[in-house]
Design a protein that fits this description.
Layout (H helix, E strand, L loop, with lengths): L30 E7 L4 E6 L3 H4 L7 E7 L4 H11 L3 H8 L6 E4 L4 E11 L4 E11 L3 E6 L7 H9 L9 H36 L5 H32 L9 H63 L8 H4 L3 H22 L4
Parallel strand pairs: 3-7
Antiparallel strand pairs: 1-2, 1-3, 4-5, 5-6, 6-7
Helix pairs in contact: 5-6, 5-7, 6-7, 7-9
Length: about 350
């Protein structure tokens, strides 16, 4: 439930721009790292202080500063002072319950997006908020925890593959967003595999926990849709209103990310439809099995109704009952009982009730 209903009780009553960390603390200590590059060279190093990166800023190069662990309010304030980041932006960075969005300021763009991964141990989706502050020559990314989906981007920068080292800061922002969206396909592939396992379980043997698995996957798909849907608005905004920070050459790449986002949304909707079909199938099979059981019990009860009637008559113990003294009375009653049972079974078969 916490993933669907955000609680920000610490912020209630606070003035706008108050820096309070809201959310789970996922790493003990915050850390800084930097990738500074241009078309010819690159520098990669950890940072002990945000001021170390400031001296490297040049109009012809791109600097990517990555902050891991956002619970250090003093560090966030220091970054805000160095790069003239608005207090409301810093407030949103510290609030990990943000909806994915994009906001434009005088000197930078602020982007919030959710980075999702599959937790193999818990067999569930875990979410991490990623905040991007995009300037002309510097991009600052804020992560909640170590580990991300950006290693392919880092490798391209290190090896100088493609156009990433010469395309500018806006292209780097596109590359990070593209990596996150591409990872959504990995998440959906895993969800699809789990759906196939549920389908096989329905076809082979109905486990008691199938319905629980269906509801768990449905909740995850709802959460996925909630995080992916706003990305369309983000990309649309960057294409139309993000200039001059978004160069014209980056436009086609943003359109490609938009197409991928639409594919992700379509896949989520398809999986939700499949899930609804599986639930209906499961409930239908359960209902049919119950009907079969009730049919058998009803037939047995119906057959015993006339037999109970016959036994009830001979259980009344009247003195003047001819069959009580008749030598063949007992076999005759049994023949009558067997005959009634046989006739009822034949009748049920003709009616195709059994």
């Amino acid at each position: 439930m916490p993933r669907f209903i955000s609680k920000s009780l610490k912020k209630v009553g606070s003035s706008p721009g108050t820096l309070i960390h809201v959310g789970e603390i996922k790493t003990e200590q915050s850390s800084l790292s930097m990738l500074h590059f241009d078309a010819e060279t690159h520098i990669e190093q950890p940072l002990t202080d945000i001021g170390e990166a400031t001296s490297l800023l040049t109009p012809d190069a791109t600097t990517w500063i990555n902050v891991v662990g956002i619970q250090d309010i003093a560090l966030i304030e220091d970054i805000g002072r160095h790069y003239h980041i608005h207090p409301l932006t810093l407030e949103d960075i510290l609030n990990t319950t943000q909806r994915p969005k994009v906001e434009s300021f005088d000197d930078y763009l602020f982007i919030v997006i959710k980075m999702l991964e599959h937790d193999k141990e818990k067999d569930s989706i875990v979410s991490e908020q990623l905040s991007l502050v995009l300037g002309k020559t510097v991009l600052i990314s804020f992560q909640e925890d170590e580990g991300d989906v950006f290693n392919p981007v880092r490798e391209r920068i290190r090896k100088g593959k493609g156009r990433i080292r010469s395309a500018g800061c806006d292209y780097l922002a596109y590359a990070l967003i593209d990596a996150i969206v591409d990872n959504y396909f990995v998440i959906l592939e895993n969800v699809g595999q789990r759906l196939e396992a549920v389908e096989e379980a329905i076809d082979s043997d109905l486990d008691a926990d199938i319905l629980e698995k269906i509801h768990t996957i449905r909740r995850e798909l709802i959460y996925l849709r909630k995080q992916v849907w706003p990305i369309r608005e983000i990309i649309t905004y960057l294409q139309k209103d993000g200039a001059p920070l978004i160069g014209e050459a980056t436009g086609p790449f943003l359109r490609d990310v938009y197409d991928h986002t639409i594919q992700v949304i379509d896949t989520i909707e398809s999986l939700r439809d499949m899930l609804s079909g599986m639930q209906d199938l499961y409930l239908s099979i359960i209902s049919n099995r119950m009907n079969e059981v009730m049919k058998v019990l009803t037939i047995i009860a119906t057959i015993f109704i006339p037999l109970s009637f016959i036994a009830g008559i001979y259980g009344m113990n009247f003195n003047h009952m001819p069959e009580l003294t008749w030598r063949w009375g007992y076999p005759a009653v049994w023949l009558l009982i067997i005959g009634i049972v046989a006739m009822m079974i034949v009748f049920f078969r003709r009616k195709k009730w059994i």
